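Hello support,

Our group uses your service weekly, and this is the first time we've seen a run hang past the timeout. The protein is TGRM2 protein. I'm not sure whether the cause is the sequence or the server load. Input pasted verbatim:
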Amino acid sequence: GCRIMLQKMGESNEFMQKAADRSLGIMVASVTAARAMTALMASGVQHRSVPVRRCASEHLMTTGKQMGAKKLLSAAPDSTELLVRTLVKLAQDCHQDTRCYGQQMLTVLMSHQKFDRYLKQSVPSRDL
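Update from on-call engineer: The timeout came from a worker crash unrelated to the input. Re-ran successfully.
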């Protein structure tokens, strides 16, 4: 379902984009935060379409803020590294809103004492 709704965000029809965005918001609120984040990272934040990345990153940020830094960084090491790499990539996105959402999520994670270690482990030095 997440992938299909995100694909609708890539359409030029504004009505369909708004409906897909609302549906994604409902989906994110209806499943566990971890499941929502997994679906958004798998289907949206790597997408070539700017509206899809923006929408996915906005819902990812909302979910991440609800979870908080401690819970986000307490997942399995592979999941944590993927999350940190994804957020650094979003924080450098070509679209202003997507960059803003990525930066807000990184700000949430910065409050955790182990964030620097995860950042150095997960992200190539050129992106730091």
